[in-house]
Amino acid sequence: MVSDQNYCFGDDAIEALKALRRGQPENTPGSHTFSSLDNYFQVCQARYVLKFSGELSKIETDKYSDNTNLFHDRFTSFWITIDQKFLWNFDNSTGDHYMAEGMCEKIN
Questions:
Q1: Residue 102 pairs with which residues in a beta bridge?
Q2: Which residues, in sequence order, are bridge partners of residue 87?
Q3: What does 87-103 look like in DSSP terms, one character per residue?
Q4: Please, which pLDDT band fits residue 1 given cuts at 50, 70 and 90?
Q5: Which residues does residue 80 pair with via DSSP β-bridges, in sequence order?
Q6: Which residue segment(s) compose the domain that 95 sits in?
Q7: What's residue 57's pLDDT?
Q8: What is the pTM of this model?
Q9: Total number of domains in the chain
């Protein structure tokens, strides 16, 4: 996470977010740039990141959380309980729903 408060919450950041909401990503050289609203959340608001390992890392992207047990990206959600059990949900563009359960390994 970026530590500079102005980068995420200063006037330039607010103007960049307004441009994104209008569908006009700000691309002025040397200016403040967020590639998407998701990018803003990942850089400025997410407190934790869930990185997959093994075979799952080849098909799943990193998931982000804002200090809750719900981790998500643009398309999927991933819940982790206190005992490291998880519930993963995915809805594809055709309306199919997939779910998986399992146990996470906590890496120290």
A1: 86
A2: 79, 101
A3: EEEEE-TTS-EEEEEEE
A4: very low
A5: 86
A6: 46-103
A7: 77
A8: 0.56
A9: 2
Per-position DSSP letters for 28-50, written without gaps between them: -TTS---SSHHHHIIIII--EEE
Q: What is the C-alpha to C-alpha distance for residues 35 and 24, in angstroms, rounded to an integer? A: 10
Number of C-beta neighbours around residue 64 at 10 A: 21
What's phi and psi for 4, nearest 5 deg?
-75, 115
- Give the pLDDT score at 26: 56
Q: How far is CA 45 from CA 24, 41, 64, 83, in A?
A: 21, 5, 9, 25
- Find residue 71's DSSP bridge partners: 78
Q: In this structure, what token pair is assigned to residue 71?
A: 């981790």
More confident residue, 108 or 93: 93
52, 96: one domain: yes
pLDDT, tens only, 28-83: 545 567 777 788 888 888 888 888 777 777 877 888 888 788 887 777 778 888 77
Q: Give yes or no: residues 98 and 56 share one domain.
A: yes
Q: Which residues pair with 90 in a beta bridge?
A: 76, 98
Whether 108 maps to a domain, the answer reads: no
